[in-house]
Amino acid sequence: MKIAAGTVLVLYALMAVGCGEQAESETSKQRFKQSGGWTRGESAYYILTDTETDCKYLEVENGSGYGITALLDANGEPVCNKSAQRSNGK
Question: What Pfam families does the database record attribute to this sequence (predicted)?
Fold first, then answer.
């Protein structure tokens, strides 16, 4: 009986710690902002913007996984706000 009660107590403590960490991360500023989105077949496409560098990324999700890559302009350069990079010291 004491072992079962101890196990339940440990499980409750672990759940409380896990919930506390989740609540903290939800209130902190998110690094990436998702904008736009479209679907084609079973795939979904989104544009992600890095809030620190203002660089843009393409995210693709489908039934078996997802991928992310830098969004490139016609010259093959990453699509970034150059003034945001200079103000961040990059």
Answer: DUF6440 (PF20037)
